[in-house]
Amino acid sequence: MTETGIIGLIIISANFLVSYKGFNNSLFFDSYKFEIDRILVNKDYLRMISSGFLHINWMHLIFNMISLYAFSGMVETHLGGMNFLLVYAAGLLGGNLLALYVHRNHGDYSAVGASGAVCGVIFATIALFPGIEIGFFGLPFFIPGWIYGVLYVLYSIYGIRSGKDNIGHEAHLGGALVGMATAIIIQPSAIKDNLFTITAIALPTLAFIYLIITKPHILLVDNFFFKEHDKYASIDHKYNAQKAMRQEEIDKILDKINTKGLYSLTKKEKQILDEFSKQPK
């Protein structure tokens, strides 16, 4: 593992600083997280970037930053600091753009995390370094990078279609593809040196993206392998579920005001209503 460069350390530090503020300030978190309606309706495009520096909790943040630390040094040393930054930013935007497209009709869909950008860096590493092997925390063996890449792509496709968990697979898949493509554009010789790996990763990814653009109904499945699911729940965290519960709570309070008047509210209900009124609209 190559020592992480200055740009990598700056990005990691920025993630810690922004995420820490988000942990302690819900209004800040809500103002900068990825949310479909805020981006498409309100045209708040800053969220496409800012959401990549927020995380739902310490475990989410630390896992992403350990992964970034493990791979960033090789890419930054090989391509240079500014090109590494370009790969990172491209992965972040690529992941969020695919998530934006997949969930364009799900106005309340929201997500945070650097996973798309980190996947971009990891897959750039796989593309740039033929023969690289990937290890896993706590396991005493390594697997070839191309096998890891193919399995990861297939797992992400499965995750997008099944919606079985709370992971933003579309951001991971989009980030991986765009990050890898950006590295190849910067260093075109990677295609000749590592054609098999790049092709094995790119073909299923591009085929799946083509299918969800031309045949979006393939995301609506209910069979032995993919059980019917609520697409609103397929996010990096459980924030949407909590938001729905809070909205239901607010609706009950408003109904109470409508039937019994403002003075019927308890102290706790007034506090909840006050916090809700301060949230960005």
Number of helices: 13
**Unreliable stretches, pLDDT < 50, 5 or more residues?**
221-238
What structural class do you assign from the helix and strand content?
mainly alpha
Major sheet size, sense and barrel closure: 2 strands, antiparallel
Strand element count: 4
> What gyration radius follows from the Cα positions, in whole Å?
21 Å
Helices and strands in order:
Layout: H1 6-24, H2 26-32, E1 34-35, H3 36-40, H4 47-50, H5 58-79, H6 81-102, E2 110-111, H7 115-128, E3 133-135, E4 142-144, H8 145-162, H9 169-186, H10 189-193, H11 195-214, H12 239-260, H13 267-277
Antiparallel strand pairs: 1-2, 3-4
Question: Can you walk me through this structure?
Answer:
The structure is a single chain. Helix content is 67%, strand content 4%. It contains 13 helices and four strands. The strands form two sheets. Strands 1-2 form a two-stranded antiparallel ribbon. Strands 3-4 form a two-stranded antiparallel sheet. Mean pLDDT is 81; it is low at 221-238. β3 and β4 (142-144) form a beta hairpin. It is mainly α. The protein has helices at 6-24, 26-32, 36-40, 47-50, 58-79, 81-102, 115-128, 145-162, 169-186, 189-193, 195-214, 239-260, 267-277, and strands at residues 34-35, 110-111, 133-135, 142-144.
Relevant terms:
281 residues; mainly alpha; two-stranded antiparallel sheet; two-stranded antiparallel ribbon; 13 helices; 67% helix
Nutshell version of this structure?
The protein is mainly α and 281 residues long. It is built from 13 helices and four strands.
